[in-house]
Amino acid sequence: MASGSVAIVEQFCAAFARRDSTELLEFFADGAVYHNMPMAPVTGKDAIKGVLDMFLAPAQSVEFVMLQIADSGDVVLTERLDKFVLGGKTVELPVAGVFELKDGKITAWRDYFDIATWTKQAAPGA
Fold it and tell me: Which residues of 27-56 are buried (b: 16+ CB within 10 A; e: fewer)?
């Protein structure tokens, strides 16, 4: 049976399919930090929304496929295949994510991936 933290992260990742950054922000604590590793970290819901919208707004669909998930209390580790359809092209990005939670809310989220894998697939003419 999944821990409470694992269940929250699974629900959060599943919510990406709805591409609603306002819904996704409900999973975060005030003052949360999101670090999409190729970019600078951002702090707070407004800044996190800005980063999420960069990926969600141009996408026709988004799916986070959970390959592995494990936890140590309020720290959840994920191995995922994040799939985006952008301009009719499918972009598949292997990602390792680390989520820290407190009182049922995400306080920190770090995603590790190879930016070249994204760029090769998402670039015009790719």
Answer: bbbeebbbbbeeeeebeebeebbebbeebb
Each residue of 71-99: pLDDT tens digit?
999 999 999 999 999 888 999 999 999 99
Tens digits of per-residue pLDDT, 41-74? Answer: 999 999 999 999 998 999 999 999 999 999 999 9
The whole-angstrom separation of Cα 15 and Cα 118 is 21
**Ranges assigned E (strand) in 15-74:** 28-36, 42-43, 59-72
Dihedral, CA atoms, 8, 41, 66, 20, nearest 10 degrees? 70
Q: What is the pTM (predicted TM-score) of this model?
A: 0.93
Active site residue 111: yes
SS3 48: helix
Tokens of 112: 């590790």
Selected catalytic residue, list 30, 82, 103, 114 = 82
DSSP 56: H
Active-site annotation holds for 103: no
